[in-house]
Amino acid sequence: MRIERVLLKDYTTLGVGGPAELWTVETQEDLLKATEAPYRVLGNGSNLLVMDEGVPERVIRLAGEFATYDLRGWVGAGVLLPLLVQEAARQGLSGLEGLLGIPAQVGGAVKMNAGTRFGEMADALEAVEIFHEGRFHIYLPQELGFGYRQSRLPPGGIVTRVRLKLKERPLEEIRRRMAEVDAARKGQPKRKSAGCAFKNPPGHSAGRLIDERGLKGLRVGDAMVSLEHGNFIVNLGQATAKDVLELLKRIQEELPLELEWEVWP
Ligand code: FAD
Ligand code: EPU
């Protein structure tokens, strides 16, 4: 186990966030120790807005035995989803294609029920192992309250492993589906971001609504509404959480949108 003081901006895709104590856990024993005091769990930091002041709790990151996988058995929650999507395709296993392009860890994808209109994480799950109250528990997906970009995990629950529901399919079919998802993502920016900032209101696209209001290019410091997609806030370089919060506020003054990101603390 490694315990170190870090700046969370180095651990989030938006590149924003202050200091914290990072606990990188590699074994069950590490996890037991790390959870003895108040904690938060970090996945790949791709849906987080972390304040410039950082967070007071321990920040737990899964590595070691929690980052190994067998696509036909248990998959560690610390494994990167993009790796799994490619590896499943290579093995001729279908079920993850809709998740192409989501830069999550498996655990973060479960917690957020990450997805696209081609499929979401919950659809690909057979079972989920969650550590809480000092023990590992196995859940069926229907017990976890999955909805659009949401789940109901037990309080303090840390997803540690999952079993996936994958089917053998011809490689060309899997590749064709992946190409379709890739094409649907073409309009998304390549700059530092945390994906879509807001949830889509039922029947609408938040990105389109922001675009139609003429808010693309709106900027506070180095935080800017992407010129490519209205629902992405990009970090042009040195954005702070304060900049991003102010920009979110200005958008929400114009449109009643619900934040998709999680704000720490
Ligand atoms: P983090 O951002 O690190 O954490 C998010 C939440 O999950 C936190 O509450 C955290 O505590 C919790 N968490 C993390 N790991 C665990 C664990 N093991 N156990 C319990 N809780 C945990 N999202 C989509 O849904 N669809 C998209 O198409 C999409 N595209 C994106 C494109 C880009 C370029 C980027 C930057 C982001 C995109 N996102 C998308 C957002 C993001 O990738 C997802 O929300 C993803 O699920 C976050 O996973 P993470 O591992 O990065 O979690
Ligand atoms: N549009 C605009 N202007 C914009 C952005 C979009 O006119 O600035 C239009 C598009 O042309 C399209 C429609 O709005 O006709 C929908 O846009 P898009 O296909 O990009 O989908 P979205 O609803 O904006 C959702 C998810 C994305 C996911 C894509 C692909 C949400 C909040 N967003 O975006 O997820 O990648 O579909 O399936 O549900 C995320 O959640 O972080 C995320 C990136």
Automatic annotation (TrEMBL):
Keywords: Cell cycle, Cell division, Cell shape, Cell wall biogenesis/degradation, Cytoplasm, FAD, Flavoprotein, NADP, Oxidoreductase, Peptidoglycan synthesis. Pathway: Cell wall biogenesis; peptidoglycan biosynthesis. Belongs to the MurB family. It is found in: Cytoplasm. One of its GO terms (biological process) is cell division. One of its GO terms (molecular function) is UDP-N-acetylmuramate dehydrogenase activity. InterPro entries: FAD-bd_PCMH, FAD-bd_PCMH-like_sf, FAD-bd_PCMH_sub1, FAD-bd_PCMH_sub2, MurB, MurB_C, MurB_C_sf, Oxid_FAD_bind_N. This is UDP-N-acetylenolpyruvoylglucosamine reductase. Residues 15-169 form the FAD-binding PCMH-type domain. One of its GO terms (cellular component) is cytosol. The active site is at R149, C196. It is an enzyme of class 1 (oxidoreductase). Its cofactor is FAD. It catalyses: UDP-N-acetyl-alpha-D-muramate + NADP(+) = UDP-N-acetyl-3-O-(1-carboxyvinyl)-alpha-D-glucosamine + NADPH + H(+). The keyword NADP applies. Cell wall formation. The keyword Hydrolase does not apply. It comes from Thermus scotoductus. Its EC number is 1.3.1.98. PANTHER family: UDP-N-ACETYLENOLPYRUVOYLGLUCOSAMINE REDUCTASE (PTHR21071:SF4). SUPFAM superfamilies: FAD-binding/transporter-associated domain-like, Uridine diphospho-N-Acetylenolpyruvylglucosamine reductase, MurB, C-terminal domain. Pfam families: FAD_binding_4, MurB_C.
